[in-house]
Recover the amino acids of this structure.
C-alpha cells in the first residue's frame, strides 16, 4: 500500500503541474524541465514497482495454494480425531474406566486448526485480490505517467516558443556612428539622410545580433536563422552628433530605438519544433493553406461517372453513392473517387472539381487475390455486413524507432516481412459494428462482467464499474470507435466474423499493424515527423475532440494505403510473440505517444475508454 500511496503522490504532483492551466502558464521552461526530470526518475522506478508487485502477488498465490493443500490435510486429521473419539465413546459403554478426555482434546484441536485454516484461506483470497488490483492499477498508472511526462514535454515546447518570442520581441536602444563620403552630385541634406539611413541599417543588424546572442537558446536559433526571416523595427531615432571630419567625410552618430519582430511561426523554425506549437486554430481534417489551389467550395459542379462493369460501387470521399452510371452535384474542391467491384482491380483517382467533369473508369478483372487498395466487405447475414477492409500488399519494412524519438521498448529497429497481402479494416471497429456482434451472440464483455473499464480522470487512472462499451463516460454515436473492450473481447468479435463470413479474421499482429500504419513511410507519422495541427485526434492536437472523446471514425485523411485513424483517436490492440500491446495513441494521450512505433504492453483482459481495435482478414 505504501507503493500505491507513493503512486498517488506522483500522479497528484503530475496533475498539479501538467493538468492545471494556470500552472502551465506560470511555469518557466526550466521549471517544466525539472518537473520532467523528476517524473522521468519516478517512471524509471515503475518497472521495478510493477515487478515487485507481481512477485508479491505470486508469493501470495503460492501461500494460498499451500493453505488449500493444508486444508485437505487438516480435514483428514479432523476426521481421524473424530473417529478416534467416537471409538472411545463406544468402548466406554463396555468399560467405564476408559479415559476419553485425550481423544476429546485431540478432536477439539483438530477442529480449531481446520477452522483457523479456513479463516486463513478467506483472508488470503482477499489479499490476493487486493494485490492483483494493485498490479493492474500500477500498470495503468505507469501509462498515465508516460502520458503526463509527454504532456509536460509539449508544455515545455510551448513555453520555449513563448520565451523566445518574449526574448526576441523586446525594445532597446543603440548608439551607432556612421561615416560616409558625400558625392558631388548630392546636396548636404541628401548626404546626411543617406548617412542616417546607413546608421539605422547598422543599428538594426547590431540589434538583431544582440538579440540572438541574448536568447536562452542562442546556439540553436543561430543554426536555424537562415530558415527564418526575423526582423527589427525602428521605433525612432535622434541625432547625437554630425558633421564633417578633417578627412572630408561626413559622420553621424544616432541614438536608435528598436524592437525585435519575430512572427510566431518563425519561432518554431528557429527552435526546430513542430509548427503546431505556433499554428493558429484549424478545423479538424483541414489542409493547411497552400496545400491545394483555391477553389470556391460554395459552387456546386456536376460530376458524371461511368465504368465498363455493372453492379459496381462508387465511393466518393469515403461515402458510397451506389453503382454507375452516376451523376451527382458536388462542391468545388478536392475529392477522392473510388470505383469497386468484387473480383476486379479497384479504380482510384483524386480530382479537384472546378467545373463539370466526367470520369470513365476501366476496371480489369483479376484472379481471386488481394489487390493493393482493393476494398472488401463481407456479408455476414441478412443485411448485416462486416467491417470495410482495405488491402495492403505483401512486403518488407523497417519496424520500430527509426527516427530516434522512441521509448526503449521500440528498439532496436529491425526489418520485418509481411509475406502475403492482407485486408485490414480501414477504420477502428465502430459501436454499430460491435453492437451487431453483441445482438447476434448476446456476448458480455470483460468490463460488463467485472466492472473494470479504466479511464483517466485529470491524469489519474480510475476503474469504474458503470463504464462499458455502451456507456464509456462520454457522448458517442454508432460511428464512434468502440471502447471499453479488452483484447479478449476483440478476439471474440474477430472469431465471430470468421464464423459468419467463412474467411479467417483476427486481431493484427504488431508487425501487420505497424506495416499498414506506416504505409511505406519511415517517419514518426505517415505524413512526416511532426504531428502538425488538426491532423489527428490526440491530446492538444487542435481538434474538436482532443482530450474530450474519440472522434467518429474516418474524421481525418486516409494514409496512402487507405487507412483512417492510425494516429490517435483510440489505442488499438495488436498481438506479439509474448502477449498483446496497444498501438497508435489516443484522444487523451500526447502526440509523441501516437507515433507509429509506440506500443504499450497490457494484459489481455485490460480494457479502458481509450482503447479499441481493428481487424485483419486473410484472402
Amino acid at each position: 500500500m505504501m507503493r500505491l500511496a507513493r503512486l498517488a503522490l506522483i500522479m497528484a504532483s503530475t496533475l498539479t503541474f501538467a493538468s492545471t492551466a494556470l500552472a502551465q502558464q506560470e511555469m518557466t521552461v526550466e521549471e517544466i524541465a525539472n518537473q520532467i526530470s523528476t517524473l522521468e526518475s519516478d517512471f524509471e522506478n515503475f518497472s521495478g514497482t510493477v515487478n515487485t508487485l507481481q512477485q508479491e502477488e505470486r508469493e501470495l498465490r503460492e501461500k494460498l495454494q499451500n493453505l488449500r493443500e493444508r486444508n485437505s490435510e487438516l480435514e483428514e486429521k479432523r476426521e481421524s480425531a473424530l473417529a478416534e473419539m467416537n471409538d472411545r465413546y463406544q468402548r466406554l459403554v463396555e468399560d467405564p474406566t476408559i479415559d476419553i478426555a485425550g481423544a476429546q482434546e485431540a478432536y477439539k484441536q483438530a477442529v480449531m486448526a481446520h477452522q483457523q485454516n479456513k479463516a486463513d484461506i478467506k483472508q488470503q483470497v482477499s489479499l490476493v485480490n487486493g494485490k492483483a488490483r494493485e498490479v493492474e492499477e500500477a500498470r495503468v498508472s505507469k501509462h498515465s505517467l508516460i502520458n503526463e511526462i509527454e504532456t509536460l514535454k509539449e508544455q515545455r515546447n510551448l513555453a520555449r516558443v513563448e520565451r523566445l518570442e518574449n526574448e526576441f520581441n523586446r525594445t532597446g536602444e543603440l548608439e551607432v556612428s556612421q561615416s560616409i563620403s558625400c558625392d558631388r552630385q548630392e546636396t548636404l541634406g541628401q548626404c546626411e539622410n543617406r548617412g542616417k539611413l546607413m546608421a539605422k541599417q547598422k543599428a538594426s543588424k547590431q540589434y538583431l545580433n544582440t538579440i540572438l546572442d541574448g536568447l536562452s537558446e542562442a546556439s540553436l536559433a543561430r543554426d536555424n536563422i537562415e530558415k527564418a526571416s526575423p526582423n527589427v523595427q525602428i521605433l525612432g531615432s535622434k541625432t547625437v552628433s554630425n558633421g564633417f571630419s578633417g578627412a572630408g567625410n561626413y559622420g553621424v552618430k544616432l541614438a536608435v530605438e528598436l524592437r525585435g519582430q519575430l512572427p510566431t511561426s518563425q519561432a518554431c523554425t528557429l527552435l526546430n519544433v513542430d509548427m503546431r506549437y505556433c499554428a493558429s486554430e484549424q478545423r479538424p481534417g483541414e489542409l493547411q493553406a497552400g496545400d491545394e489551389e483555391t477553389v470556391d467550395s460554395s459552387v456546386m459542379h456536376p460530376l458524371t461517372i461511368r465504368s465498363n462493369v455493372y453492379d459496381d460501387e462508387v465511393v466518393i470521399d469515403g461515402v458510397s453513392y451506389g453503382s454507375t452510371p452516376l451523376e451527382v452535384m458536388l462542391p468545388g474542391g478536392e475529392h477522392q473517387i473510388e470505383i469497386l467491384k468484387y473480383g476486379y482491380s479497384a479504380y482510384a483517382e483524386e480530382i479537384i472539381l472546378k467545373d463539370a467533369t466526367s470520369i470513365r473508369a476501366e476496371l480489369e478483372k483479376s484472379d481471386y487475390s488481394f489487390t493493393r487498395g482493393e476494398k472488401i466487405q463481407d456479408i455476414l447475414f441478412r443485411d448485416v455486413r462486416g467491417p470495410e477492409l482495405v488491402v495492403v500488399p505483401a512486403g518488407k519494412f523497417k519496424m520500430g524507432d527509426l527516427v530516434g524519438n522512441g521509448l526503449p521498448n521500440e528498439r532496436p529497429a529491425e526489418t520485418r516481412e509481411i509475406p502475403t497481402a492482407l485486408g485490414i479494416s480501414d477504420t477502428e471497429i465502430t459501436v454499430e459494428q460491435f453492437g451487431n456482434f453483441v445482438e447476434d451472440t448476446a456476448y458480455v464483455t470483460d468490463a460488463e462482467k467485472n466492472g473494470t473499464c479504466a479511464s483517466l480522470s485529470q491524469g489519474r487512472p480510475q476503474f469504474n464499474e458503470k463504464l462499458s462499451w455502451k456507456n464509456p463516460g462520454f457522448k458517442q454515436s454508432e460511428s464512434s470507435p468502440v471502447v471499453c473492450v479488452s483484447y479478449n473481447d476483440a478476439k471474440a468479435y474477430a472469431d465471430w466474423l470468421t464464423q459468419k463470413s467463412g474467411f479467417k479474421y483476427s486481431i493484427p499482429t504488431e508487425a501487420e499493424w505497424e506495416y499498414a500504419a506506416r504505409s511505406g513511410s519511415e517517419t514518426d507519422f505517415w505524413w512526416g515527423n511532426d504531428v502538425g495541427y488538426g491532423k489527428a485526434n490526440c491530446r492538444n492536437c487542435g481538434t474538436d475532440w482532443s482530450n474530450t472523446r474519440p472522434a467518429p471514425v474516418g474524421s481525418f485523411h486516409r494514409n496512402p494505403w487507405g487507412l483512417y485513424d492510425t494516429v490517435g483517436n483510440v489505442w488499438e490492440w495488436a498481438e506479439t510473440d509474448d502477449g498483446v500491446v496497444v498501438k497508435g495513441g489516443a484522444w487523451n494521450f500526447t502526440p509523441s505517444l501516437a507515433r507509429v512505433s509506440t506500443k504499450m504492453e497490457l494484459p489481455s483482459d485490460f480494457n479502458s475508454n481509450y482503447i479499441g481495435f481493428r481487424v485483419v482478414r486473410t484472402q
Summary: The longest strand covers residues 231-244.
